[in-house]
Design goal:
Layout: H1 32-39, H2 57-64, E1 68-69, E2 71-76, E3 82-87, E4 90-95, E5 98-105, H3 112-117, E6 123-127, H4 133-137, H5 150-153, E7 157-158, E8 167-168, E9 173-186, E10 193-207, H6 220-223, E11 226-230, E12 233-236, H7 248-264
Antiparallel strand pairs: 1-11, 2-3, 2-6, 4-5, 5-10, 6-9, 7-8, 9-10, 11-12
Length: 265
């Protein structure tokens, strides 16, 4: 199947939210897109027992729990062998203390990364953007432990200021981390350790000035982050919209009015 070329000119833009006129208590079928979404339910549901249907469970969850940001982790072994690997089971945990998490599957073998991050030498977590997604993708290769994936990535090492492992120069946002906690996930039936969750304590952040806006936070239109979608798919940010946090004190009269009208109808 022939696919269209990647459009480098596509830019993330800000739009109104999907239903800008939404009011408190409004049902989804109030809009045309909502009605079309509800029509899909007419095809029924498939219920999956996760203890019985394990063959496709992995791919099903990968394609359903999306989008997932990618942690490109640089670590170094006690013998000085450097390793880089991407992980999409990744997210922020808390800002105080600043923690991020990523998970490493132990199948078919324990990966280099969870071994390395436990040695006290520190590691870096680098965010992936559009221009170098192929560079990080190649490091998914199932190379032997002694192989240095830097050699095939085409990426550039930059010395860290606090940890032994380097950071990735091409990444616009890199975090120097120390191990906060490693949590082994044990299967409740078989008893084997299937996955290791790494809680990483962020000690230093390196962020390119050109991706910051006037408020000192990330400008998503310049950042161009890439996510994983399962089924060998990657995705980029399309249109974005803001939905301000709703404050009870400011909106309680409207909420009570909407609920009162609903009760009378």
């Amino acid at each position: 199947m022939s696919l269209p070329l990647f459009d480098h000119d596509v830019r993330t833009k800000y739009t109104e939210p999907p239903n800008a006129s939404w009011t408190f208590g409004q049902k989804i079928d109030n809009t045309e897109s909502g009605r079309k979404w509800l029509e899909g339910e007419e095809q029924g549901w498939k219920v999956i027992n996760t203890e019985e249907d394990t063959v496709r469970l992995f791919q099903l969850m990968l394609t359903a729990i999306v989008p997932r940001p990618i942690a490109f982790v640089c670590s170094v072994s006690e013998n000085g062998v450097e390793n880089i690997a991407p992980f999409s089971w990744f997210n922020m945990v808390t800002h105080n203390p600043p923690l991020v998490s990523f998970c490493c599957s132990n199948s078919p073998r324990v990966k280099d990364t969870p071994t390395n991050v436990k040695n006290g030498l520190g590691f870096t977590v680098n965010i992936v953007s559009e221009p170098f997604v192929e560079n990080i993708h190649v490091t998914y290769i199932d190379a032997p432990p002694e192989f240095n994936e830097w050699t095939i990535s085409g990426l550039t090492k930059v010395p860290s200021i606090h940890v032994k492992a380097p950071r990735v120069k091409e990444s616009a946002f890199s975090m120097e981390c120390e191990l906060f906690q490693a949590i082994d996930i044990t299967h409740p039936v078989g008893g084997e350790i299937t996955t290791t969750m790494i809680l990483a304590h962020v000690k230093y952040i390196h962020v390119r000035k050109d991706v910051l806006n006037e408020r000192g936070i990330i400008d998503i239109t310049k950042y161009k982050p890439i996510s994983k979608l399962g089924d060998e798919l990657y995705g980029r940010i399309g249109d974005v919209f803001r939905l301000p946090r709703i404050a009870w004190e400011q909106e309680k009269d409207k909420i009570e009015q909407a609920l009162g009208a609903k009760e009378q109808s």
